[in-house]
């Protein structure tokens, strides 16, 4: 098994496959019909709803199935905001929510509401007190993920739910990443999740809305799923989704312990094996199976290709792997290095040997990418003369010395305009040896990643980041050499 | 095979089942990812899109997959209205569209737009000229089904599309009932369909939007499916859906001929075998596999139960089978009898023996329901003394003579308040013998079905329906005895 991206989508669980096949013959009819095929379908759907509700920790009549986790999030946010529109149109979310939550909240804000994004610490966690400060008299809804999908940090959901309960604001929990590991504790009001994250088929999300929560359906009327999720329900997929949820829950405690050890191995070994790496996310309060790290002077997309060639499938929050050429909003909110970012999320059943092989492959993959970029060596900064190995340099001719000239104030100015991550940071590192101790260097860049990665580089190198200032083109990121 | 409700949902086609199972191992990953599992999933999705587009008759980049036909309709209507909001907010639909179309159009009208419902003739067909009259300068969208889902009548889509094209208004075609039989002809602009109607799995709809059609996505941003359908795509289900579409298309011509003969058999034999039946819908311009008829003096739900006990699964547009206790809007728009309504829609592969057994069972089933309701015999009206067979009457004691008294003008008044379909019509029939030729009778009823069924009874009995007038409670439906 070298697929290490279960946080994106997990392979179909064998139990899900069997349940799907077994219910294809029984679950295709309209469960609202009174004839036998309809009654059989309705029985399957009812039983799946009971089992899902038990796993979620709610009543069966509080839970509906949706066509995806995204639909559950969209419907939940829209329904809760509409249900409390007399209170106001303000929503509160964490800055590191899944894009489905952020997009739904922003769409509501654009339609006349307003939105507060609660910041996170360097581990990606929110502070319950910060939710308390963000809640207002016109707050209709707060949203918080149970655990972060990119860095694995577990959020203080129960504490935030309590803060919200005291203020009479419903809390919607996006439990997509954690529901397979266990129910979400605390007095949440709404909960959304997605079956393909726990080994169920795609096409099944679930939305729980506690009794007493004000909820009003937006959009065209549809009588199915209590009016909360339109469209004909894919009952075999629902049955398979719930069967796999029960199956992974049975294994969850033991598997969490086992995978958590493998993640600890990655967290410990990667910084030992690969120079200039930042492991991000909470080392303790985290998902059992997920770890994320970023590699200085590395192009994330190139690293993913190297790892793919070595049979490892991982994802990245680096800007080069994004359509918008911006680093992941999670890494940005955390203020951590974004270049060369790798997320490893282990599917259930991943063996120690797979992880060890990954650890064996990774250093060479990072080195190869750095070599192609002619990145500075891992030595301390200020030694721009050190270069990539000759073999790699032959593949890609050694680039010219960066264009760097003293500005009018004597400050060194590096022109990295038009260059994408990780080049601006590499160019900074290359010229840094020419900056006198106490002197400053300004990197001109129009790449969004520089805003994150130049301060991160300063932190890793013990240099002082002085901030940014506007420039004729792009932004000037200013660094003072301390040593 | 005694499942005769394929217009509601068709059993999974064997080809769909095989394609689903074959793609479960390849199609679970995120097709947007660059690693091998993602690339494999993307290849499957791309191939399915190409094949679906070919079957629809559009370009692959014009077609997206949605989680259901309902989602395709909702998205298509919302997107087309939003795309042309500068033109105006007026939409035109036929009065007999599927509820997903009507609900989406009404939701848009409630949100500040407006809506015109084009009437249909007694067969359920629209006139292209009526669309022409309904189009206005502020019309943003017109919608028309390819064929009606309740009575099978094929709509003049190509002609209506031409009318719309001349006026610069896009036409959205709901092709849910017909796409398995063949592509929709004509210059339509948008097309929606649903896989479980053609033997694909549930959970897959498709929406085609022709290049050049103004389209703007409403709701939260989501990058998948060209931004037109949010949520993680269920690729194995999509693959299965498209495989079964191709499979049923291969068989379509021969199967259409075969099933159409069976439907003709039903259309011819049912009125011969069962007294007082109205077969509805166009006898020629119709779907090959679908026929609907209504039985006077019959409770639709009771008839469905009788047929279910005899192993036949059919559906009904009678008010008693509806949550809202109103007859199907299709039957209402057509102005045909709604009581004792039965829709028979034959799945592919239905044999002649199955249909003959249905024809053998139906007369007894209808007679049993009529007997329990102590319905008048099938003889000409005016013979209220004739009664149901003694055996059935024993099950349910003979009800008292209806409360009927001459009103102040000498008009006979039947009080059927609080009685549900088909009782008001039965009570009318029972007292009709007491009305002198040329005299009138008024039926007081608060049942919505009476509005449809009393005029229909008049038509079937050759009596004159004079119309309705307000009453202290309910409505008075007035009939003049002609013979």
Brief characterization of the structure:
The first copy, chain A, is 37% helix and 16% strand. Chain A contains 13 helices and 15 strands.
Side-by-side strand order of the widest sheet of chain A: 1-7-6-5-4-2-3
Instruction: List unreliable stretches of 5+ residues of chain A.
Output: 379-398
Order of helices and strands of chain A: HHEHEHEHEHEEEHEEHHEHHEEHEHEE
- Percentage of residues in DSSP E strands of chain A: 15-25%
The Cα radius of gyration of chain A reads 25 Å
Structural class of chain A: alpha/beta
User: What is the helical fraction of chain A, as a range of percent?
Assistant: 25-40%
Provide the domain count of chain A: 3
Strand tally of chain A, please?
15
Largest sheet of chain A: 7 strands, mixed
Oligomerization state of this entry? homodimer
CATH topology of the largest domain in chain A: Aspartate Aminotransferase, domain 2
Principal-axis shape of chain A equals globular
Would you tell me the overall average pLDDT of chain A? 93
Family (chains A, B): Belongs to the class-V pyridoxal-phosphate-dependent aminotransferase family. NifS/IscS subfamily.
Domain UPF0033 (chains A, B): 414-438
Cofactor (chains A, B): pyridoxal 5'-phosphate
Catalytic activity (chains A, B): (sulfur carrier)-H + L-cysteine = (sulfur carrier)-SH + L-alanine
């Amino acid at each position: 098994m070298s697929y290490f991206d279960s946080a994106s989508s997990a392979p179909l669980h064998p139990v899900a496959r069997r349940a799907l096949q077994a219910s294809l013959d029984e679950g295709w009819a309209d469960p609202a019909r009174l004839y036998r095929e309809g009654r059989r379908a309705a029985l399957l759907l009812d039983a799946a709803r009971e089992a899902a509700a038990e796993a979620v920790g709610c009543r069966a009549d509080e839970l509906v199935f949706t066509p995806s986790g995204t639909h559950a999030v969209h419907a939940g946010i829209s329904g809760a905001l509409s249900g409390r529109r007399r209170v106001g149109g303000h929503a509160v979310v964490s800055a590191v929510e899944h894009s489905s939550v952020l997009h739904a909240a922003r769409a509501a804000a654009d339609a006349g509401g307003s939105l507060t994004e609660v910041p996170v610490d360097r581990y990606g966690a929110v502070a319950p007190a910060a939710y308390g400060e963000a809640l207002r008299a016109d707050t209709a809804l707060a949203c918080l993920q149970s655990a972060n999908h990119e860095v694995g940090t577990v959020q203080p959901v129960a504490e935030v739910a309590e803060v919200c309960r005291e203020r009479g604001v419903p809390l919607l929990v996006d439990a997509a990443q954690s529901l397979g590991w266990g129910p979400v504790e605390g007095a949440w009001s709404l909960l959304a999740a997605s079956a393909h994250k726990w080994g169920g088929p795609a096409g099944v999300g679930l939305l729980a809305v506690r009794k007493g929560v004000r909820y009003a359906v937006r959009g065209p009327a549809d009588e199915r799923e209590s009016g909360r999720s339109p469209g004909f329900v894919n009952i075999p997929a629902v049955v398979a989704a719930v069967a796999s949820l029960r199956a992974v829950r049975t294994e969850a405690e033991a598997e969490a312990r086992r995978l958590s050890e493998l993640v600890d191995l990655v967290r410990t070994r990667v910084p030992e094996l690969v120079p200039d790496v930042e492991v991000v996310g909470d080392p303790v309060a985290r998902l059992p199976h997920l770890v994320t790290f970023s590699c200085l002077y590395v192009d994330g997309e190139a690293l993913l290709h190297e790892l793919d060639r070595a049979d490892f499938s991982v994802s990245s929050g680096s800007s080069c792997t994004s359509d918008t050429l911006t680093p992941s909003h999670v890494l940005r909110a955390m203020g951590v290095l974004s270049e060369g970012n790798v997320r490893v999320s282990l599917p259930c059943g991943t063996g120690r040997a797979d992880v060890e092989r990954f650890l064996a492959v990774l250093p060479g993959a990072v080195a190869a990418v750095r070599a192609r970029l002619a990145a500075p060596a891992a030595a301390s900064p200020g030694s721009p003369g050190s270069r990539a190995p000759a073999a790699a340099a032959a593949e890609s001719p050694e680039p010219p010395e960066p264009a760097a000239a003293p500005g009018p104030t004597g400050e060194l100015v590096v022109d990295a305009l038009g260059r994408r991550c990780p080049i601006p940071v590499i160019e900074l590192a290359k010229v840094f040896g020419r900056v006198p101790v106490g002197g400053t260097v300004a990197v001109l860049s129009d790449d969004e990643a520089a805003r994150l990665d130049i301060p991160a580089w300063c932190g890793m190198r013990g240099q002082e980041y002085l901030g940014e200032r506007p420039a004729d083109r792009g932004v000037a990121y200013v660094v003072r050499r301390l040593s």
